[in-house]
Amino acid sequence: xxxxxxxxxxxxxxxxxxxxxxxxxxxxxxxxxxxxxxxxxxxxxxxxxxxxxxxxxxxxxxxxxxxxxxxxxxxxxxxxxxxxxxxxxxxxxxxxxxxxx
Length: 101
Description:
mainly alpha; protein-disulfide reductase [NAD(P)H] activity
């Protein structure tokens, strides 16, 4: 579950970017996998979602949101779950290294 404590306050300016997303009105099943999806079917669905994201005018805002709240599921800002996890883990590792150095 996403850590909602990191979510921005419910001010329309903080969320207005979502109205401009290329995914708005699209079938959410493109961006979120069913429980049993594996292998090539999952890779194909994720590639389709990422193509939509990469043409999106608010890709940066979407990605920043997903990383800031550590969104655990789906394709957000052109990144999948594992990509976000790896990036967040790398950022934490670099922070620990700087603090410990």
